[in-house]
User: Fold these one by one.
Assistant:
Number 1:
Amino acid sequence: MANDDITKLQAYNDFIKRKSLVFAIAVFATIVIALFAVSAGSLDIPVLEVIRSILGKGEAQFHTVVMGIRLPRVIAAILVGATLAVAGAVMQCVLQNPLASASTLGVSQGAAFGAALGIIVFGGGVVNSDSAATAVTINNPYIVTLCAFLCGSLSTFVVIILSQFKKELGPAGLILAGVALSSLFTGGSTLLQYFADETKISSVVFWTFGNLGSAGWTELLILAVIFFITLVYFLLNRWNYNAMASGADTAKSLGVNTRAVMLISMGISSLNAAVAVSFVGIIGFVGLVAPHMMRRFVGNDYRYLVPCSAAAGALLLILADTFGRLIIAPVILPIGAITSFLGAPMFLYLLFRGFDKNGC
Amino acid sequence: MGVEIDNITFAYNPTFRNILEDISFDIQKNQCIAILGNNGAGKTTLLKCIDRICPANKGVVLVDSKNVYNMTKNVMAQNIAYVQQNNSFNNMTVFDSVLLGRKPYIKWDATSEDRQIVYDMIEKMHLEDFVLRNVSELSGGEAQKVMLARALAQEPKLLMLDEPTSSLDPLNQHEVLSIVKQIAKEHNICVAIIIHDLNLAIRYCDRFVFLKDSRVFSYGGLETMTPENIKEVYSIHVDIIEHRGIPLIVPFPDKRVAVNSSLGKVGI
């Protein structure tokens, strides 16, 4: 091989290494911000003390705050952010729609309705009235997760049916379908609230704001297991996603079973989003913002977009939550509102920039 | 050995008429065949049936005597590569786009051998200066070559191209078809090309399949490229003359032929 050819292949290898570097930077930034998030608050804890507490060697006072309150919250932010971001990236690919995400397709609203149904009607949660921070405690995560998953999947099911049988709808049509489904589920939630007493209404409203502090270690374990199993599935399919992003017929001619990949990916994304929402409430736009942010750095290459989106989603949610906790402390701003503030400008940015023709 | 298409029949909806009916022909190794016919004759559908994008209702496709319809999707992609007419480009570099052609062979990640094959194909298409360029930034001709390089990276036994020259200038048309013909010989593969320019078809293809009314109207070598067959298939009079030893098809404007159209009788 000529020297010139070796140089060009080396240039490609360097190009690939730069993408890996983006992932490494995003993970490093997530760890740094996470440590800061655990240390900052009404009780300032030095970062070294945070690390000592995590290792079980810190002072009892710090240990209680770190392990009992702040660390679960930060891990919830990492897991939920990564889950929603990866689900969004995959949905955008398999539906060939840059606006696809759990919140814009009605999955979050459906899951939220299901979770509220599970908590209030089926007794999956205990409703307290002592303080806003503990307004809803999930004592049966399985029934709540199941209800959230079923209702979230209903949205996914309708969107899949529409995308398969009404291809002329296009990206805008699917988003409109998501808007319609969101309205439907919001209406259902309103009805539930209408028949609930005042305490329950305030609890449900608070729950839909999104609260990362509501997830305990058990919920985090469930989230982590589901997230890592599905992440492996998404990574195994990264070449399929790259092929599908080039068009369905191209993907088929490259040996991809597009129908199966689409259905399974949508189902899994829906499960992820539904579980996340059922534990922490509605957290919108992370699934939309994080993948598009990462596309600026790693392009539409799903080998890197999937892990980078996960890291970016985690980073975004920790930043948003830390901002919400510290900006007017001791009042904690609802995380859902802050992520929506991030998402709306992103929507506008995408509109100004224009989407790729293939939607990814 | 080569490719045998045997009695392919296809309808998008069983209650409607067949788009393809009992289509049969074969392609030998090293051979380029042109699939010809007017718009709506079913040429693209035929390629999609062969590649199982639209599975045929009846008939078989044999590649080296193995039925494509019994292969797994990955094995099929190692046997057949298909370059579509309208490619949508993923927002990827030239190298990554061509690397997708190795997907049927990749287990977890691309090996150095995969990368070498990809680079060889890029070099063959004279795209080595665009390795890290985004495909969407390339001209139509260059993008077409990227798609061709991707198909060749699949190392197929049958390469199918749907109007590969439609968006190319004359120089690029000849360059792309020369490369295809050369590759067919070098790699010992079968090539099927849908093409509307009959002069390019004569120059670069060895055999010709004329489709008309969902069926094969005529199939054979240069002897099938007659004014009569062309008139039957395309409803246009032509003369075939020889220029510098190359047959040249010239539309014959003096003998205007009337065809039915939505506007009534229209002269061509």
Number 2:
Amino acid sequence: MGKTLAEKILSLKSGCDARAGDIVIAQVDLAFAQDTTGPLTIRQFQAGNFERLANPKKTVIFFDHAAPSPNRELANDHRLMRQFARETGCLISDVGGGVCHQLVAESLAKPGDVVVGADSHTVTAGGLGAFATGMGSSDVAVVFALGKTWFRVPESIKISVTGEFKRGVMAKDLVLQLIGAIGADGATYKALEFGGEGLRNLKISDRLTIANMAVEAGAKAGLFPADRVTRAYLNHQKRGEDYQALAADNDAGYESQININLTALEPTVAKPHQVDNTALARELKGTKIDQVFIGTCTNGRLEDIATAAEILKGKKRHPRIRFIVAPASPQIMLDAISAGYIRTLVEAGAVIMPPGCAACLGLHQGVLASGEACLSTANRNFKGRMGSPEAFIYLGSPATAAATVITGEITDPRDVF
Amino acid sequence: MLKGKAFKFGDGISTDHIIPGRYAYLRSNLPELAKHVMEDADPDFAGKVNKGDFIVGGSNFGLGSSREHAPLVIKMAGVSAILAKSVARIFFRNAINLGLPVLICDTDGIDDGDKLEVDLAKGTVYDKTRGGKLTFGRLPKVMLDILDRGGLVPYIQKYGDFKL
């Protein structure tokens, strides 16, 4: 029988015939931690007396979750991380450098890689055809030291995509619908593997959004083949040499298959306090919102900001709405400035944050008060995530977010075109 | 044999219930961080739990973030094992990597406050309050070995590499 994408990549990197259910030791091509998991990663590395990195140029410390530092405790953590980078010679992306997963996609990961990060949304790089997965600090500390780790080869669920999005519908709506259908534990320990003729209509920005949220269904990885769309993206990033075609075998074995017709999708929102608690945006009309946040590793890319700017051109935010925008990387920030999107958004009433995670996890730049509601383009709406445990987080696409900025309540973007 | 009282929680206890992201600034001050263990699921938990007690969850326990601080603060609270119907992948691996046993079993029959005894070697949970007996699945060998060494870092220190 042929192999799934997960089996192919893990076979190549382990030197074994890796099949679902097997436990293998695989070489890791890229390992990283960020500023909320990095300090414990460093302490575990030190506790193991590991001293040297296996691959300093394939090891990265990112500053994105709370950067620049909002308080002295986190400033001390940042200092520890800079000192570790100096001592070990690993790569470092300091404050303003952007969200780790976006930088991994722009500059570091390539099709067929194994990527391990001390962050659950490491799955994002699956959009480029990398087997990328999140782990905790101890696991990543050991990868830093040994350059390898153990994996249970996951069973795969095939998601077959046809059609193309209608206007106002985005990749976020697809992945929210999928998670709503299979549940927050619908793919636990498994890989979600995307295929079908509709993939040609999914740009890399779409694929990164979808792979990013695979973990919200419990998945170990969200995997896309590497195809012409991938090659065009890597060429655009001046990384054409990193491209290799990658596809599952036609006779690969899948645990199950789910078919999604992009044309049939509608703007979708996850309601508090779980990502699988989904509804259509139009069903939530009238739900008052206090803050709208566009950004993060899920939806802080240029295409997301362009979508919001198109909807908000010449419009003003509703007086109740605090409107926060955080481009996911400096490249996106600069491109958004050049294209005039940032001007449009500021004229509409946006506050622009530096490239980073911003309000996503309740540390700074838009912490919610008790009783407040936020419509966010991020990936998690757990109780307490953005500040008060008495706050309410709704997740939606950048188009739904922009429409909500205008009306002050959850709005289907097609109502404001 | 592990002995203690059951603290029962529902389905879908996330890493933000266990240790909310807003306390990330305390992650290098573990004694202070540990005071907030399970705060958004039960604000009084840290004051009630005793050494040896068990956290008993439903399905998808520990979903969400990769933060290893979630099993770490549970371990610091003295909890001797987590029992749940199913456990999110990263949390599962993190707990074992810290030497904290995670036991997958049907927890519906366990009530809050039940006195439990767990035999890790036999794979059995005895509910002394209700007289019930449950079995839990075996871990893969690599995870059992890591648990035996008290966690991943001591395991690698001992063997210098993974051994399958």
